[in-house]
Amino acid sequence: MPISDMNWVFNEKPLNHDHVKDIFEIKEYYHRINLRFWWWVYPRGQSSETKRILQDAGLYLFAKVPCLAATLNESLLDDNPTDDIKILQVRSHEDLLNWKNVSFDGFEMPACAREQYDAFISSFTLDDQSPQKLFMAYLDEKPVATSLLFTHKGTAGIYYVSTLPPYRNRGCGLKITQAAMQSAKQSGYVEVVLQATPLGVRVYQRAGFQEYCQAEIYKLKAS
């Protein structure tokens, strides 16, 4: 997709000289398909050597992203219902279309990414065996916020938490996050993780998340 943060490379172990060729080939791949990308370095992969190798390859440290986790206990999930905000799980293709539109506009993505984003979201399955469960928040009957719970083996993660700009700061982000947390708990998980933007940290802390580490994001220097 023509958005850097949708095209990821990541390493969970420190880089060394043996990886220089791999980095070159990855850069060449993205150059051939004319796409930008972000290189994520998670805590176990962070080292002075990793930083030097990436910088030598023309990448620079662009941002640090908080990584948070929450224990799914009842006190955190005991939410006060409100009459104006309703949460529904996406189960139909019509609901998926609404989810796709709200998340696209909530993240304020550029129009040039629309076709690829639509194709990506349309590939999601909605049955009970699907690894992802999608949720939509409705404010006064209007779809305004989204979240996605993704589970794999022993891990549950929350992604795609977005709210349409005119409806922010009205509790929708908290409610849609708690909906994903409730679903994770009902599926037998005791913990859930997510990565936060600076604007989202306070919302997640209200939901019971704590920051445990930060991921580093590198991007290519402009040529």
What's the topology here?
Layout: E1 8-11, H1 20-32, E2 38-41, H2 48-56, E3 59-71, H3 74-77, E4 85-89, H4 93-106, H5 114-122, E5 132-139, E6 142-152, E7 155-163, H6 172-186, E8 191-195, H7 201-206, E9 210-220
Parallel strand pairs: 1-2
Antiparallel strand pairs: 2-9, 3-8, 3-9, 4-5, 5-6, 6-7
Short description:
It contains seven helices and nine strands. With 223 residues, the chain is of the alpha+beta class. It has two domains: 68 residues; 144 residues, Aminopeptidase (3-Layer(aba) Sandwich), CATH 3.40.630.30.
3D structure, described in words:
The protein has 223 residues and is α+β, with helices and mostly antiparallel strands. The protein has seven helices and nine strands. The chain has two domains: 68 residues; 144 residues, Gcn5-related N-acetyltransferase (GNAT) (Aminopeptidase). Strand 5 and strand 6 form a beta hairpin. The longest helix is centred in the last third of the chain and has 15 residues. The protein is globular and about 55 Å long. The mean pLDDT is 91.
